[in-house]
Amino acid sequence: MTIKPLIDWLSDPKVFAVNRLPAHSDHLYYKTMDEARNAKSMSMRYYLNGDWKFSYSVNPESRPKDFYQMNAVCKGWDNITVPGHIQLQGFGKPQYVNTMYPWDGHNDIRPPEVPIDHNPVGSYVKYFHLPDNMANSPVYISFEGVETAFYVWLNGEFIGYSEDSFTPAAFELTPYVTDGENKLAVEVYQRSTGSWLEDQDFWRFSGIFRDVYLYTVPEIHLNDLYIQTDLDAHYKHAVVKANLIFLSVIPEGSEIIAKLYDKKGNLVASTFGEYQGVDGKLSFSVDNPKLWSAEYPYLYKLYVQIYNPAGDIVEVIPQLIGFRRFEIINKVMCINGKRIVFKGVNRHEFNCQTGRAITKQDMLWDVKALKQHNINAVRTSHYPNQSYWYQLCDEYGIYVIDEMNLETHGSWQKLGEVEPSWNIPGNLSEWQNIVMDRAKSMFERDKNHPSILIWSCGNESYAGEVILNVSKYFKRVDPTRLVHYEGVFHNRDYNEISDIESRMYAKPIDIEQYLLGNPAKPYISCEYMHAMGNSLGGMKKYTDLEKTYSMYQGGFIWDYIDQAIAKKDKYGKEFFAYGGDFADRPTDYEFCSNGIVYANRVCSPKMQEVKHLYQNIHIYPDRLGVKIHNTNLFIDTGWYDFECILYLEGEEVYRSHLNVDLQPQSDGYITFDWPTDIFNQTGEYCIETRCKLKQQELWADAGHEVAFGQYLFKLGKNEWNVTPSKGSLRIVNGDVNIGVHGTYFSALFSKQVGSLISLQYGGKEMISSPPTPLFWRATTDNDKGYAQNFFSGCWLTASIARHCDSIDILEEEDHVCVRFIYTLSIHEKVKVQLYYSIYPDGILKVKAIYNGPENLPQLPIFAVSFKSPADYHLLEWYAMGPEENYVDRSNGARLCKFKNNVIDNVAKYVVPQESGNRIGVRWVKLTNSNGKGIQISATTKPLECNFSPYTAFELENAQHHYELPNVHYTVITVAGKQMGVGGDDSWGAPVHDEYLIESGEDMEFEFTVEPI
């Protein structure tokens, strides 16, 4: 019967698949064993990727309705690239929204209605000739990802219709394909009933954004393969069971042979399969299999060979198999009998140039980055990913929560409040099938991947009978995995949906409260540490829970990569654009950029902290030796090389190899064998122990550092600065200025300005703008979420203006001291003093003292800031580094010497904000290209320092990096204390109390400035 396509399907939740073939496993298949062993791509596939003809319409009414007909002329249309998004190729515009639906405020509609006036339509046409190897064979087409709904025609005949943007849709073309030129027409709609179910926190695109290919099948074709590896309770004996579904009835006399090989190519097991009709099965046993885990992702290869009745091989299916058992034991999730801890991240598929149309190269970079930074788990937020991603996770060793394509956030939560009066799918039976279809499509495609441990019923869709039935489905078809769904937190009537207690952005104290209450389920944070901009402060509070509570089993950082789009400003310079930059309204602006990786796949400074807190080898050196805790579940320390390095004042003085032999889940203490008199000098010592890969792995070269630990101690005086020398000074106490002059330097202090206004070394001026007390930092994204500028904005004013109450000059035997005392407008009791002590050799010692009353708002920072000429832009540090760090994000930093450029300290967070700080600064050198400049040194305790081309106020006022001024200065900020950056969330969570600066806290710090 001929089916007439209807546009009404777009708003009918009961119609989501017309003529679409049933979902099946994502296995590959080949004609011969040689092909199966060697081929990377299938000869029975023919990709239609590349240029297609294209017409864009803003709504269905204006679309070319009959473009699919053979007599419709389309070859003069524009071109568009497939795979790719319509909105990133010059048609329409991208729109970013988080929880609200993208038409909010434009269209007064409720599910399942879709906008009529603005529902962009992409009309695609591809002309092709059938490949020779598909002639006289059945022909099918697979669309791996189309957003959000589409109709298909071939040679003027309607083929089918499908929704669900993130799982494949396949159709048969055999009756309509011709030997000559074929015309494939695809009509893609941005809005459909599927749009109500795809309210994820991402850019709203549309189009054919994943691969499209034709495929054929041999005379006997295994259409679906479901493999389960049943391990016994001792993890020593496995039974491999496989259910087979063929495309058609298997002829009598055919044979199914299965052979299992290990990594070395040795035959491990073989068996004959049974079949009847279209169904088949096979099973065999394996004793003492090597087990799969993220630490040791051992994979076997199974070849399923199909022979026809004549004895000819017609199809070979190569399938990677990992033996592993995932279960809950005594309320704790375990893999292969060991308690698992997810050191995870949420990952959107994203590329700054192509959006969600990512490449294999992107995915390969991603999986290597995860492994190199000790990340062992990914949640596919919030949709099934490309099949290749799961293959990489299998091979490289990444645990996966595979999440179905479901989020209806805007239907039940408005402005942060739970209001589910029109929530979908809820208990609405008309939405059951369309939601269940998404679950089935994901499960059927992905079920054979050992990396997938958990099925997720979607994200932030509240709870109800529909999602409960999805959970029951997963448990029925796959008892080897657990089911996850966070939404039950908001509706405990449906607690049984999830096998795991999963929460988002719960504070550490709330998690502990749950864990101390004799809970029924193990706990994970499916989202935590909102990594928006300069964030991830306080992450250690979460990872510390792993050591205390066995039922706390880790979490998934939000999120992996900034969803920022490369765009050019009016002068042709590329920048990272976020919501609103495309005149898209409504929008949620920069909330799309929460990654630990920048949008261009460069690791952000936050990754330094992630790598350290996620490391499985914990290293605790002291002066005599090092305690090493191997928290790996399955691999011993034989995989690694260990070395100990001794530094004195940042310079290496000794290095040795350590013999470490620790089994998984064990610790030991290794004594150092120091040379005699190694500690015979005074100064600050640092003992650093490193753990490195012994051999090359898929994801890193031999020598890659996996973990480190440091121990610091001092011998002798507790000072870092150079002792000022004696000599003569010439002092001029003028009417307006106080001059202090030495042989090779001069300094001017202005009574009018109330500050140091000139410091010249060798005739070169180092002060472009006078030092002033600073109490404000450029607000971070987390600061904005907490409304820091509202609660503490008075300190911004205090940083801009102050009153100099008095200027004192004190002449000592070996130096001159000039003191400035300031009051601030915010409160009469706030007093700040700056002491400048200058010595005959030109060393300037600066001491800053703050005294203030209680009950004023918290201070973002207490610092002294000034400008030097921009020619001075080269930095050498002896501080905690090498990446930026803050008082609540410094576990991954190490005391070391390192170099960078001033511009490097402006992190590429999409909105300019505070960045580039280093804590634990002993000294830092600022020089020009000739090596001349100044050194700033701590005296009694380390400092916090930042060197930037921009002031805090310039950063504060810029919404994009292109809005920042041209570089004229180097802005030097020396701080006694800066508050932490926080990261529990970015919409109200404060920085933890111990990392704040209270107004009633008396503070002082001291540093020296000396010429280089």
What does this protein look like?
- With 1012 residues, the protein is mainly β.
- 11% of the residues lie in helices and 38% in strands.
- The protein contains 14 helices and 64 strands.
- A nine-stranded antiparallel beta sheet has the order 52-53-54-55-64-61-60-57-58, with no helix packed on it. It has an eight-stranded parallel beta sheet with strand order 33-32-29-28-27-36-35-34.
- A hairpin with a 2-residue loop joins strand 49 and strand 50 (764-765).
- Helix 3 packs parallel to helix 4 (387-396) and helix 5 packs parallel to helix 6.
- The chain is globular.
Layout of helices and strands:
Layout: E1 17-18, H1 33-38, E2 45-47, E3 50-57, E4 78-82, E5 95-97, E6 121-129, E7 140-143, E8 146-147, E9 149-154, E10 157-163, E11 169-172, E12 181-189, H2 193-196, E13 202-204, E14 207-208, E15 212-215, E16 222-231, E17 237-246, E18 255-261, E19 267-272, E20 274-276, E21 279-287, E22 300-307, E23 313-321, E24 326-329, E25 332-335, E26 338-339, E27 342-346, H3 360-372, E28 377-379, H4 387-396, E29 399-403, E30 413-414, E31 417-418, H5 432-446, E32 452-456, H6 465-477, E33 482-484, E34 501-504, H7 508-515, E35 523-530, H8 540-543, H9 545-548, E36 552-558, E37 565-568, E38 574-577, H10 606-613, E39 617-621, E40 625-630, E41 640-648, E42 651-658, E43 666-671, E44 683-693, E45 705-715, E46 730-733, E47 737-741, E48 745-750, E49 755-761, E50 764-765, E51 769-774, H11 781-786, H12 788-791, H13 794-800, E52 803-811, E53 816-824, E54 827-838, E55 844-851, E56 861-869, E57 874-881, E58 894-901, E59 918-921, E60 923-927, E61 933-938, E62 943-948, H14 952-956, E63 969-978, E64 1003-1011
Parallel strand pairs: 27-28, 27-36, 28-29, 29-32, 32-33, 34-35, 35-36
Antiparallel strand pairs: 1-10, 2-15, 3-4, 3-6, 5-13, 6-12, 7-11, 7-15, 8-14, 9-10, 9-12, 16-17, 17-21, 18-19, 18-22, 20-21, 22-23, 24-25, 25-26, 30-31, 37-38, 39-40, 40-43, 41-42, 41-44, 44-45, 46-47, 47-48, 48-49, 49-50, 51-56, 52-53, 53-54, 54-55, 55-64, 56-63, 57-58, 57-60, 59-62, 60-61, ...
Helix pairs in contact: 3-4, 5-6
